[in-house]
Specification:
Blueprint (H helix, E strand, L loop, with lengths): L1 H25 L8 H19 L2 H17 L2 H6 L2 H65 L3 H7 L4 H72 L3 H30 L21 E3 L2 E4 L6 E4 L2 E4 L5 E3 L4 E9 L4 E10 L5 E9 L1 E2 L6 E2 L4 E4 L10 E8 L2 E3 L9
Antiparallel strand pairs: 1-4, 2-3, 4-12, 5-11, 6-7, 6-10, 7-8, 8-12, 9-11, 12-13
Length: 412
Amino acid sequence: MKNKIVSTISVLIITTLILSSCLYFVKAEDNIANNEMQENNALQNETNNTVNTLSLSEQKEQVEQELQKAQEQLTYVQEELSDSIIELQQMDDKINEYQNTLNEVNTKYQELQKKVEESEKQLKIAQDDYDKKMDLLKKRLVAIYKNGETKYLDVLMNSRSIIDFVSKYFVVQRITEYDSKTIKELEEKKLELEKINNQLESDKAEMKLAKVEAEKQTVVLANTKTVYENHKNSLSESEKQLNSQIETYKKQQQELENLIQYTISGSTYELKYSGGVMIWPTLESSYITSPYGSRLHPIQGVVKNHDGIDIGGSTGDPVYAAADGIIIYSQFNTGGYGNMVMIDHGLNSEGVKIVTLYAHGSKLLKNVGDTVKQGDIIMEVGSTGNSTGPHVHFEVRENGTDVDPKNYLSSN
C-alpha cells in the first residue's frame, strides 16, 4: 500500500512538471511564482538564444571540437599497445627502411653495372677505330718519308698535258686533305676515348661504393631482423596476437599503396588538368572528421600517415568528381578502402599528373573508362572497408605522391 502511494505521488509530480514546461513554451509571458522554475527557464532561454545566434562558422567550430575530442578518445587503443609491441613495431619500421635503402642501393649498383658494361663496349669500339686510323696514318707517313718531299712535285711535272696536270693536282690535293682529315679525326677520337675512360673510372668507383653500402645495409638488416625475431618471441600470447593484427594491417596498407601506384602509372590518357579549384567532393554541409597527416588509426591503433582527409556524411549521400577527368579505378578494394574510385585529371602546366581518390563508398556509380565532369556523382557515401562509420575518404595525388587535398579544394 505504501509503495502504491509513493508511485502515485511520483506520477503526479512528473505530470505537473511536464504540464508546467508545456505552459511555459505556449505562453511565455505568464508570470510563474516559483523562483526555482524561473531560474531554470531563464537558463534554458539563454542557452537557446546562444545557439540561435551562433554563426555557421562557430557551429562548424563546435562540431570540429567535438570531433577532436572523439579523436582524442581513441588514444585508449594506443594505451593497449605495450612498450614491447611499440618497440617491436619501431624495429619493424626500421627493417622496412633498411630494406628500402638496400633495394635502392642494389638498383643503383645494377644500373651502374650496366652503364659500365656499355661504356666498356663503346671504349673498345672507339679504341679499335682509333687504332685502325692510326695504323693507316703511320703507313702514309712512312710512304711519304721513303718517297721524299719531291714525290708529289715529280708526279705533277711528268704530266703529259694540262688536263693531266690538273687531274693529278686534284688527286694530290685530295690525298693531302685526307691526311689532314685523318689526323683531325684521330685527335677527336683520342679526346672521346679519354672522356669515355674517365667516365668509366668514375662509374666503377661509384659502383664500388654502392657495393660497400649494399654489404653494410645487408649486415644491418640481418642484425635488426635477428633482434626483431628474438624480441617477438619474448612477447606474451596476447601481445603476439595484437602484433600480428598490426602486421596484417601494415601489409594491407602496403598492398593498397602498390595498387594505387600501379593504377596511376598504368593510366596513359593524354589529358590536361586545367587547374583551378576542385569542388568539395560531397555535400557542402559536411565537415572534415580526420585531417591529412599523421594520426592514430581508429581501428588498428597504429600511428601512420593519413594520405587524405575523411569527410563525414550519411550512407547514400552523393560523392562528386572534384574535377573533370576519366575513371581509372572503380571497384571494391580488399585492402581497407572498400568501394573505391580513382580519377585521372591529366597533367598540369608543370607536367605533374593529378589524380583524385574516393573511398569507403556504399555504391559505385561509374565504370573504368567513363569520362566525368566536375560535379558528376561517381559513388555514394558509405562505410565499406576499414571504416568506423559512414564517410568519404578523399585523396589528391601528384605523380602518385599524396598531398594535402585542402591545397586543391575550395573552402568549406
